[in-house]
Specification:
single chain, 22-stranded antiparallel beta barrel, 750 residues
């Protein structure tokens, strides 16, 4: 009944913080769809449909983050930047991570793109995933986050939302004179002894411009807070002594989370060329590399004898290379298009997982290298003064190389072990879409569209048959999906807008779903299931934005999503009757992903902006969400990625060169009975209640951040996060959040 109430009576529109940011700041947007924010709400342009259009006319709810917000938030990673919206929940398994959750969906049920290039690949997994940190916040111009499903435009995975990152594009010189601009930035924070250095330089002429950027970040072991559950403390840890034996030592400071340190390098090169007003070339190279990133949540797992299971567990250097180019042809009154965009890209993504059990000498290492080629063609045609059509095609090819070995650290001998994925497997997909927009009557806009996608996955499992008694060798899986949606945006008046959306969405099985072999948890091993089909969803959204006569702004959003054919881990029996196999030396229960999950997720979002004076503003954002697996049991089970109710309160003061933001972030409690079944077995992630059961306690933090501009060239930011030194751990996270944290940064622009 609550879900029906939320759908039929909830009210929505652009969440308040989006509008507040849009109205409070003025930046310019060039014609490359990078950032366009103006004071008049009705003139705000966003590009969730891949082409610029008025934010008032689109039916989707879009959260925008502009460059001013990025500078004030001063985030360590792009995951931390997303968290500042108040609409996106971030889970972390280690310091070098950040897995976004949007409306109860995460990981491979969300789409991430950068400069129009889809980052989702064939090995995006259902477990928490941290690829978003590959994007440096120092290179971001703006971010547009679509809340809710958008498979019509973005294809597979866009069930919960889409995160579009737009990096800085060099601007052309407005005169015939050449121009050179540069920025130097540095930041230091105390909780993890973070040191960040950034430099970029821009060179521009009237027709061509260049932007080069480099960012280097390093983090030490993270210090947690002092006031909270002692279950999170790091009392002891494993070290390898000089005689090569693992020993457990006492932590001299149990608030220091040993083995969380890591470093990261980001490089970017952008070239923008415009030979005439109708033709543009936007070329970019992005490169990111980390050092080894310890997976903290695996290093704190203990067995039934309270002994550590792992001495080492870390991700090897994560490398990401993107080379992309977009050609924009803008020629009005052509027969089939007014604007044509052709995007091509190449990506290489490399990661590895390395683990060694306590007191054992063998280090198991599994390496994945993925090459991705993509082609996107998007066209816009204006039919008449009140309607237009957008359509296009997309082709993506993923080629995967997977290797694995075990190294005896005592003598250096190497042995082959089972790979995580079948080597030389591939995934191809083709999609075509059409989207129609029409002004039905005065101030009522209709959006409708549909998309067809075909995918073909090939994998050879014969190499792993040397290690496991599988009954199949080659897998070839072909799937197709047809989805559609309809949305309405009603501009009732300048102070009230209503929006309604009904959408279907899908997620096709990828290589990670179909063909991987790995330990999902100690004692369980996941094996391939060649019978998988796409996940499907049906979503509803309704809402409104209001502005009162005394300039108070309110927005409400309600949504309901029914997910069926959902892929979920279940115990599995191979055709030969096996239910257990030996994996990495341990007898493990066989499990597989199966299309046996049906779930209902619903929620309510509320935002408000209250002007207290000419320079003082109160802003707040709150999120209430629930979700249940619909099983054949007489009761329903909570969905794994449903976060607690969460939100924030901000008091913002702006005057002259000073910008001050005092705010509170909070999470509600999730009791043991409300934990997802898969989470209940991970007591090491949670605090324990009075009955000894894991649960996620409620928490709030008090924070302050300021930005002061000494001149047009020099500005600095200072933040004091978690002032009360609260000890807390966000829901499902494997690492505790920073304790009291001082952050200082300085930027010089020449």
């Amino acid at each position: 009944m609550l879900s029906l109430f939320l759908f039929f009576f909830g009210i929505n529109l652009y969440q308040a913080e989006t509008i507040f940011n849009l109205q409070d700041s003025i930046t310019t947007r060039n014609e490359n769809d990078v950032s366009y924010l103006v004071e008049e709400l009705e003139e705000v342009l966003v590009s969730p449909s891949k082409f610029l259009e008025s934010s008032r006319e689109i039916s989707k709810k879009v959260v925008s983050i502009n460059q001013n917000t990025v500078e004030l938030a001063n985030p360590k990673t792009s995951a931390d930047l997303l968290e500042t919206t108040g609409n996106i929940f971030i889970q972390k398994s280690q310091l070098g991570g950040g897995s976004p959750i949007i409306r109860g969906f995460s990981t491979n049920r969300l789409v991430i793109s950068i400069d129009g290039v889809r980052l989702n690949n064939a090995i995006y997994r259902s477990g928490n995933m941290h690829n978003v940190i590959s994007i440096s916040p120092m290179t971001i111009q703006n971010v547009e986050v679509i809340l809710g499903s958008e498979s019509v435009l973005y294809g597979s995975d866009a069930i919960g939302g889409v995160m579009n990152f737009y990096t800085k594009t060099p601007l052309l010189s407005e005169t015939s004179n050449k121009k050179i601009k540069s920025n130097i930035s540095s930041r230091y924070s105390t909780a993890a002894s973070e040191k960040m250095y950034h430099f970029d330089i821009e060179y521009s002429t009237k027709n061509i411009s260049f932007l080069s950027s480099i960012t280097q970040s390093s983090f030490g072991d993270l210090r947690m807070g002092s006031n909270g559950p002692t279950d999170y403390l790091r009392e002891n840890y494993v070290v390898t002594s000089y005689d090569d034996e693992d020993v457990v030592v006492e932590n001299s400071d149990s608030k220091i989370q040993k083995f969380t340190a890591y470093s990261q390098l980001n490089l970017m090169q952008k070239i923008f060329y415009q030979p005439n007003e109708n033709l543009k070339f936007d070329f970019g190279i992005h490169f990111s590399k980390t050092n080894n990133i310890p997976r903290y949540d695996r290093l704190i797992i203990e067995d039934e004898n309270e002994s550590f299971i792992f001495s080492e567990w870390y991700y090897g250097p994560q490398k990401w290379l993107l080379i992309n180019n977009q050609i924009t042809i803008d020629r009005k009154n052509k027969k089939i298009f007014d604007v044509l965009k052709i995007g091509t890209s190449f990506q290489n993504f490399e990661e590895s997982r390395n683990s060694r059990k306590f007191s054992e000498s063998n280090l198991n290492s599994r390496l994945e290298s993925l090459d991705i080629l993509s082609l996107n063609i998007d066209l816009l045609k204006k039919i008449n003064y009140k309607s237009n059509i957008k359509y296009g095609v997309e082709f993506i090819h993923n080629g995967l190389e997977s290797k694995a070995k075990s190294i005896d650290l005592n003598n250096g001998f190497e042995d082959l072990i089972s790979t995580r994925y079948p080597n030389n497997s591939s995934l191809k997909s083709f999609g075509a879409y059409v989207n129609f927009k029409d002004k039905i009557i005065q101030n009522l806009f209709l959006h409708t569209g549909m998309r067809f996608t075909f995918s073909n996955l090939k994998a050879d499992l014969s190499q792993n048959n040397d290690f496991f008694d599988f009954t199949f060798e080659n897998i070839s899986l072909k799937n197709s999906a047809l989805v559609g949606g309809v949305g309405l945006s009603w501009l009732r008046n300048n102070n009230n807008i209503w929006k309604l959306n009904i959408n279907t969405a899908f997620r096709s099985p990828n290589i990670d779903d179909l063909a991987k072999v790995f330990d999902s948890a100690p004692g369980n091993v996941l094996v391939p299931n060649p019978e998988l089909v796409p996940e499907r969803s049906l979503g509803f959204e309704l809402g409104s934005y209001f502005k009162t006569s005394n300039n108070i702004e309110l927005d409400f959003s309600s949504y309901l999503t029914y997910l069926y054919n959902g892929m979920i881990r279940r115990d599995f029996v191979l055709e030969n009757g096996l239910t257990e196999i030996i994996y990495d030396g341990s007898l493990s229960q066989i499990q597989a992903l199966q299309n046996s999950s049906r779930s209902l997720i619903y929620g309510l979002e509320f935002g408000m902006k209250l002007p207290l004076s000419q320079n003082l503003i109160l802003k707040t954002q709150h999120n209430i969400i629930a979700g249940y697996e619909l099983s054949e049991l007489p009761f329903s089970l909570p969905v794994r990625h449903i976060p607690p109710n969460y939100g924030n309160f901000h008091v913002v003061f702006k005057k002259g060169r000073l910008n001050l933001d005092a705010f509170i972030n909070y999470n509600s409690e999730i009791q043991f009975k409300d934990l997802a079944e898969s989470e209940r077995s991970k007591a090491y992630l949670y605090a324990l209640d009075k009955n000894g059961n894991p649960y996620s306690p409620s928490w709030y933090t008090i924070n302050l951040r300021t930005k002061y501009s000494f001149s047009e060239k020099i500005n600095c930011t200072f933040s004091f996060e978690n002032i009360s030194d609260k000890l807390y751990r966000p829901y499902s996270s494997g690492i505790s959040a920073p304790g009291s944290n001082f952050i200082f940064s300085l930027n010089y622009a020449y």
